[in-house]
Amino acid sequence: MQKWADYRSILQEKGQQAKDQVKTVKLIGNMIWKSGPFLILALFLFMFFEGILPAFQLYASKQIIDGLSAVDGGASGQQSLHWAWMYAGSMVAFVILSSLKKWVVKILSERSMLSINLLLLQAWENVPGMKFFDQKKYRNRLEALREATGWLPAQIMTISTSFFTGLISLLSIIGLIANLSPLLAILLVASTIPYAIKQNRYAELDWEYEKDAAEERRRMNYARDLLLGRRAAKEVRLFGLGNFFREMYLVTFGKLYARFERLQNRFARDSALTGFFSGAVAGLGYLWIIYQIDAQAITPGDIALYLLAVFQLSKEAREVANDGADTWELWRMADDFRLFIEAEPDIKQAAQPQKSVAGSPMAIEFRDVYFRYEYADDADDEEEVEESEAEPEEYDGDDDSDLADMTYFEEAEEADSEPPETEEAAGREYVLQGVSFSISPGECVAIVGANGSGKTTLVKLLCRFYEQTSGQILIDGQEIGKLVIEDVRKRIAAVFQDLGRYGVTVEENIALASWEMGEQDKLRKTAALAGFDEVASGLPHAYETMLGPEWGGVDLSGGQWQKLAIARALYRDADFIIMDEPTASLDIRAEYELYNSFRELMKGKTVLLISHRFSTVKMANRILVLKNGRIVEEGTHSQLMELGGEYANMYRLQAESFEEDEGKVANG
Ligand SMILES: Nc1ncnc2c1ncn2[C@@H]1O[C@H](COP(=O)(O)OP(=O)(O)OP(=O)(O)O)[C@@H](O)[C@H]1O
User: Fold this and answer.
1) Which structural domain range is residue 530 located in?
2) So what's the ipTM on this one?
3) Where does ligand 1 bind, in terms of residues with CB under 6 Å?
4) Has residue 55 been placed in a domain?
5) How far apart are CA 438 and CA 473, in angstroms?
């Protein structure tokens, strides 16, 4: 009974795998089909004719030789000439068909590359959160897919067409040889089976290797991009980091190469052995034909035909096996694409999400919110290391890609239902620990706290980049998880610490925060409020100046980029403005001017300010003090000063450092 149950579950598993494969074939097939239905049909026609040409040419050669060697003179000679013309015609047809096929494949590949990239970009919209960015496994996969978009469609097209053409060619040559001896045809084909099996096995191992190598490849790209890119150019040069990252590149390559070489050696050995077997059978086929000549059983044309056909069949069968194995590997990659596209989003959207109505300042409430970042990779990592170090002896037939493991929701749900264990344990892991506060519509609240106390994390939860582990976050009295994510986001404008520096014009840099692009008056007004108007007027083409020297544009200073980011946030008619360190890079005058226009900027909006500068913090109606993920104090500036706690300490420290400096200057 147990055995039957085992068989049934194996069958079910295989059935599921087959269903998945069909889904992948449909997805990729559909994508290629859409890139040019007529071209696809033409391609099949070209492949068919190109496939039968070798068999035709063999047959024509036979006719020519038979005609020339016939004793009847004129009639056979004439026939031979006809075949010679046809043979010559087939040579021309072959060249034309090959060129046409190449052209169609190129056109279709390029068009499918667009489609596959669009699919990937579209799938990106299904990943509303940021959790995936923190997960190594996901990043490895995504990087591999991103790179594959450049070559996958072209490879699928080229290898699949080569496979198809080869198959037709093989079948037609089998037909020719079967005419002489069906047994010889069967033996020749059968002799390539071990070779085909080994090729498939190799394709599987190669696939496993590529999967395991994803992280190392990403590491190598990382080291290379750091050295060749602009992002770290200053430090790379100043600290002489070239050797360090070159070494990282080399060491990572070395780790991969050892396994790669082992795999290739094994492949070469197996290919030689199985190829030797298939070649030996073909050689015996030759001897057999020679034996037939002795027996005067066949014509000279037949001799030429079969000698060539034996060679051609043996070669074609191996090529079909090669292409088949490569096609299999490519479809596995395509399978990963499908899994990525179909992956569950990292942020739960309610079954029937409610609208969050824009147009009035937002009310916000945190109720006993706990949050910890998840490192979903950790458990798998050890396994992965072990796997990658091991010799890839046997493929276990496990078809599950890593992407199929994206069961983040379940993890989140489990965590949701479990309250944090003990306070101490929570203290080690939770970035936010029972945070409760509320911000009334139109209020401006500041959050202060030491580095790493959880201020930015709180903002990330408000923008719904992550989901709280437990507790509730309410927007206008509605739970954030029950609202349409885009609705909530459209109502928020933010200046993040790691603000975007887009390689587009100044105008676009500001206006892209809003759907209504290009409202000139509004654009200039917000730029002026953010203190950017003055900067823009000094640029070569004012608001139309391209930014980013890598695009032939202008670079801005850190503070100017920050002003631009503030302008962008203000350009959006948001109900809630978040400013995470908005004045960190601003000079004193710019900060002072921003302070002066602050009341006007924030009119009719709810504001959350995060800053280490107390001059900025003082602008708020109310201040929350965050320490190790907990709110420890709350009140106005004067209330908190009076309290003489954490806030007052921090304030005095900052003020003292100024006073000390002033004192030193005064004392000379
Ligand atoms: N993506 C992440 N994955 C894991 N841990 C993170 C992540 N982002 C932040 N953390 C951790 O969460 C804690 C709080 O970080 P957060 O950025 O919220 O601090 P912060 O109060 O804004 O600090 P700062 O004043 O330096 O900006 C830190 O200990 C940090 O290491």
Assistant:
1) 499-564
2) 0.98
3) 134, 373, 431, 449, 451-457
4) no
5) 10
